[in-house]
């Protein structure tokens, strides 16, 4: 695929291989790819800002606290204006900062602030690459969906031999092209419904019953299905995150409103119920604020069950989606509860996760799930919620085609 019109933010970190970044820039520029260079203090020991500027025909960004850079383009914007962030060469030090979330210079701050995919091309001494600290850091980065090219095996500048050489520029160019290639659209022409977020069940006009769901997982699934070409309706409870791009979003508050919006979205090919729907609502929510009367007993709330949206969609007769996927957030006996939920709700798959104390999953950015289907139970590694969403969307595409 051609890179014409694409925009890469290229971070050049320290290392003898930094000179190869110049060749990479020439390859990218020859294809009409815009390159914005960022040079770390270590990188500047090996290549000059002047050569980067000459080859990219762009200004070179070096300082985190540069007043001119901040007034022209803040570092948050800089990290997001590109289609892809590439770190070549990626030093052991910068990989460690990425894994730990340290942001103490411009490059590491951009890497923490970006909302784009990141490709790293590591280059370092073989022992540094094989050190358990670097191995652990790479494990963390891979789990976060950071893409990696290289390193190559070969003789090194330090007279040792082994893995650690920066991948050759054409190989890095191809990795960039693969990441920027339009995704195949196996779900083109398919319709998907996703529920996400918590529901708010009113007690009175100012109080409500809610839960800790952030909507991150459900929103990421809606985005991932849209990325694969599906026409997606997302029915979202109240959340503090933005609507995903390319998805029709219906904002609701209560479980009853969520069910009505879901039924209105039918027919669909697949429904994914990721919302944490309140199981109960207050039977007689008042339209005036409950008052504290001195000496009076606190009000007793009478709860009644909410409709089960997942079970309703699974039993929708001729309007039933071909594939219905539910979630099971449990604090114990995960497999047992998930398998039981699959039967009870009548859905096809359950994505089960442990939300027990300390897992950090509910409201967090990562998830570790089991995919439970009629064929068995598949444990997935701990991944960012976006990566779980991509995997699930891919599996849905395979099931529907
Ligand atoms: O029964 P439980 O709440 O554990 O089931 C979780 C699954 O059921 C999730 O997929 C959730 O979105 C769905 N659900 C629903 N409507 C409810 C309760 C749960 O769709 N009222």
Count every helix, treating DSSP H or I runs of 4 or more residues as helices. Answer: 14
CATH H-tier superfamily of the largest domain: CoaB-like
**Low-confidence runs (pLDDT<50, min 5 residues)?**
none
- Identify the CATH architecture of the largest domain: 3-Layer(aba) Sandwich
List the helices and strands and how they pair.
Blueprint: E1 7-12, H1 19-30, E2 34-39, H2 49-56, H3 67-72, H4 75-81, E3 84-90, H5 92-100, H6 106-113, E4 118-122, H7 126-130, H8 132-143, E5 147-148, E6 152-155, E7 161-165, H9 169-180, E8 191-196, E9 201-202, E10 208-209, H10 216-227, E11 231-236, E12 248-251, H11 255-265, E13 270-273, E14 280-282, E15 303-305, H12 309-314, E16 323-330, H13 334-345, E17 349-354, E18 366-367, E19 369-373, E20 376-379, E21 383-384, H14 385-400
Parallel strand pairs: 1-2, 1-3, 3-4, 4-5, 8-11, 8-13, 11-12, 13-16, 16-17
Antiparallel strand pairs: 6-7, 9-10, 14-15, 17-19, 18-21, 19-20
Helix pairs in contact: 1-2, 1-9, 4-6, 5-8, 10-14
Cytidine-5'-monophosphate binds next to helix 12 and strand 16.
Task: Provide a descriptive summary of the structure in words.
The radius of gyration is 25 Å and the shape is elongated. The strands form six sheets. The protein has an eight-stranded mixed sheet with strand order 12-11-8-13-16-17-19-20, with helices on both faces. The chain is built from 14 helices and 21 strands. The model has no long low-confidence stretch (mean pLDDT 92). It folds into two domains: 7-180, Rossmann fold; 191-283 and 301-400, CoaB-like (Rossmann fold, 3-Layer(aba) Sandwich). Helix 5 (92-100) crosses helix 8 (132-143). With 401 residues, the chain is an alpha/beta fold. The structure holds cytidine-5'-monophosphate. Residues 195, 255, 273-275, 277, 279, 306, 308-310, 326-328, 341 line the site of cytidine-5'-monophosphate. The site of cytidine-5'-monophosphate (C5P) has 15 residues, from helix 12 and strand 16.
């Amino acid at each position: 695929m051609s890179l014409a019109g694409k925009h890469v933010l290229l971070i050049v970190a320290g290392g003898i291989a930094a000179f190869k970044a110049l060749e990479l820039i020439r390859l990218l520029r020859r294809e009409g790819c815009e390159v914005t260079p960022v040079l770390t203090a270590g990188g500047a020991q090996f290549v000059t800002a002047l050569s980067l500027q000459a080859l990219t025909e762009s200004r070179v960004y070096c300082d985190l606290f540069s007043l001119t850079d901040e007034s022209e383009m803040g570092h948050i914007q800089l990290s997001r204006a590109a289609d892809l962030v590439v770190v070549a060469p990626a030093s052991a030090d910068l990989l460690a900062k990425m894994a730990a979330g340290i942001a103490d210079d411009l490059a590491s701050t951009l890497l923490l602030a970006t909302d784009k995919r990141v490709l790293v091309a590591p280059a370092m001494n073989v022992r540094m690459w094989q050190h358990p600290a670097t191995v652990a850091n790479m494990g963390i980065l891979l789990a976060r969906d950071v893409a990696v090219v290289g390193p190559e095996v070969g003789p090194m500048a330090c007279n040792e031999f082994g893995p650690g050489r920066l991948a050759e520029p054409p190989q890095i160019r191809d990795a960039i092209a693969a990441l920027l290639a339009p995704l195949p659209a196996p779900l083109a022409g398919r319709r998907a419904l996703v529920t996400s977020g918590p529901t708010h069940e009113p007690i009175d006009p100012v109080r409500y019953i809610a839960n800790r769901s952030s909507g991150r997982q459900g929103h990421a699934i809606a985005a991932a299905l849209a990325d694969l070409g599906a026409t997606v309706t997302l029915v979202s409870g109240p959340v503090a995150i933005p609507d995903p791009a390319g998805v029709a979003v219906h904002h609701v508050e209560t479980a009853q409103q969520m069910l009505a919006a879901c039924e209105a979205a039918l027919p669909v090919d697949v429904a994914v119920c990721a919302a944490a729907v309140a199981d109960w609502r207050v039977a007689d929510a008042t339209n005036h604020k409950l008052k504290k009367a001195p000496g009076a007993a606190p009000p007793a709330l009478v709860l009644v069950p909410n409709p089960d949206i997942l079970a309703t969609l699974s039993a929708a007769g001729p309007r039933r989606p071909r594939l219905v996927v539910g979630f099971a957030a449990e604090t114990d006996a995960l497999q047992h509860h998930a398998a039981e939920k699959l039967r009870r709700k009548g859905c096809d798959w359950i994505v089960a996760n442990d939300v027990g104390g300390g897992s950090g999953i509910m409201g967090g950015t990562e998830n570790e799930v089991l995919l439970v289907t009629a064929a068995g139970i598949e444990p997935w590694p701990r991944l960012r919620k976006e990566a779980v969403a991509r995997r699930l969307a891919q599996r849905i595409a395979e099931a529907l085609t």
